[in-house]
Task: inverse folding
């Protein structure tokens, strides 16, 4: 009688001895197997972070006051914000190589701030692209020197580049006091940033939260208009426009970062406030040079 065809069995679990016969694991695979799975508690989607709002208002006041004193003092204020961002940016985004990323952002802060502060004549920002290029080279060297298997390499490079771009945008505040009406323009923008940040606290329910961005833009526009009228420069229309744009930009940044799991920590909220102020630098500088006579 012919043998009956046998049904193939499903492969069972591979024993450690059998698994050892395969190719050796890479450093990245060993690291991933050794990692303990962490359970992250997601924060609520609200942007109501009192420390983020407070840091936004404090930094805005510091930049506005230094704008009436000296450009080098504005550079110190912006540099302080950049160092705060370097200190907490890797924690905020949960990057794998935090110390190296912090070093890269510190280099970028010092290089871009010095490039902007030491330019005594037009064009004031001529050395900032070179400083940013050096900082990006440092970011790539950091990835080459990593010894942890380079997990999440693309994410780390993108996060470092984004942090450097935000810092480079912030250094555009530094030469504004040397331009016509620059100190007043800086005061208009900082007042709009500070008062618009209060809109983050005025949306306690999900129904009102959808109107937080328009509310912040209206408050920023009114604050910019009021300071422009008081200071006499820029024109009321320009002051309102600057207020609306910087208020919307800063609120959008805090709103995006508010949903990250790490925003439960004080360090991440301080970084959120610093980021929302620094990112508006290029907006204020461009409008100040184009619209302020």
Result:
């Amino acid at each position: 009688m012919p043998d009956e065809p046998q049904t193939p069995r499903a492969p069972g679990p591979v024993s450690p001895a059998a698994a050892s016969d395969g190719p050796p694991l890479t450093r990245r695979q060993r690291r991933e197997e050794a990692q303990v799975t962490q359970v992250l508690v997601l924060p609520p989607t609200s942007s109501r972070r009192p420390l983020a709002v407070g840091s936004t208002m404090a930094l805005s006041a510091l930049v506005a006051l230094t704008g009436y004193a000296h450009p080098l003092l504005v550079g110190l204020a912006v540099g302080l914000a950049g160092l705060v961002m370097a200190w907490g940016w890797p924690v905020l985004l949960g990057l794998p190589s935090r110390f190296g990323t912090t070093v890269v952002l510190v280099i970028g802060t010092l290089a871009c701030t010095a490039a902007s502060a030491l330019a005594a004549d037009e064009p004031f920002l001529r050395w900032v692209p070179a400083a940013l290029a050096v900082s990006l080279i440092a970011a790539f060297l950091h990835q080459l020197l990593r010894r942890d298997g380079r997990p999440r390499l693309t994410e780390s490079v993108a996060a470092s580049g984004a942090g450097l771009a935000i810092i480079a945008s912030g250094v555009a505040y530094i030469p504004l006091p040397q331009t016509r009406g620059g100190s007043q323009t800086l005061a208009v923008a900082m007042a709009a940033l500070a008062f618009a940040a209060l809109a983050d606290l005025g949306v306690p329910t999900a129904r009102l939260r959808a109107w937080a961005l328009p509310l912040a833009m209206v408050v920023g526009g009114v604050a910019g208009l009021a300071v422009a009228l008081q200071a006499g420069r820029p024109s009321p229309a320009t002051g309102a426009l600057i207020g609306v744009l910087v208020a919307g930009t800063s609120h959008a940044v805090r709103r995006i970062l508010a949903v990250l799991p790490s925003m439960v920590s004080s360090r991440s909220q301080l970084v959120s406030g610093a980021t929302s102020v620094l990112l508006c630098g290029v907006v204020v500088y461009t409008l100040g040079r184009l619209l302020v006579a």
Summary: DSSP finds 13 helices and no strands in the chain.
